[in-house]
Amino acid sequence: MAVPPRPAEDQRFQDARAKKLAALIEPTVAAHGLHVDEVAVTTTGQRTVLQVSVDYQEGTENVDLDTIAGVSEALSVVLDQGEQNDDAAAPLAALETYDLEVSTPGATRPLTEPRHFRRNVGRLLEIDRTADERSGGAAALTARLNDVDDEGIVVAEIKPPPKKGMKPKIGPDTHISFGSIARARVQVEFSHKD
């Protein structure tokens, strides 16, 4: 399944109206201890949807459903008031109806910002390196994210076992600069008991 790219920090809003709406909703999202990851307004036929993706600014905790519901309720109030009083909500005020969808970016969305990596320390990543930075010509590597600094990430590569039933080999910690990462995303791990 293809995963849509996560926008870079300066591209979180699709267009001018999404950027305008983001300015209106960001204080409410921040009051819930969250960060606006992305805002999009999409129209399909007669249906218009305001999609707001939120996440914690830092830490590895996941946003729970109660928090999402609370943010959604608070944003509904802010948007309703904004439609009556505020220019920022003008893109919505012109519509007869619209749907508000509040969600999180999801576990498998690409990591594009240092804070995305900080939120995933300890997790298994699939990393594609830029062509000039590939080690030994490998297109991608699977590695455990151990640390993040201002320049890049520290990972331990996990090499698949040569035979079924054997443990994978874990390489030494390696620093990869942000500039040499073409694409990175979290690999969902399933644990089981034998």
Automatic annotation (TrEMBL):
Q: What is its main location?
A: cytoplasm
Matching SUPFAM superfamilies, A to Z?
A: YhbC-like, N-terminal domain
Kindly indicate whether the keyword Transcription belongs to this entry. Answer: no
Pfam families noted in UniProt: DUF150_C, RimP_N
In what residue span(s) does the Ribosome maturation factor RimP N-terminal domain sit? 24-107
Q: Which Gene3D superfamilies match?
A: RimP-like superfamily, N-terminal
Family, according to the entry, reads as follows: Belongs to the RimP family.
What is the protein name given in its UniProt record? Answer: Ribosome maturation factor RimP
Q: State the organism's lineage.
A: Bacteria, Bacillati, Actinomycetota, Actinomycetes, Micrococcales
Point out the gene that encodes the protein.
Answer: rimP
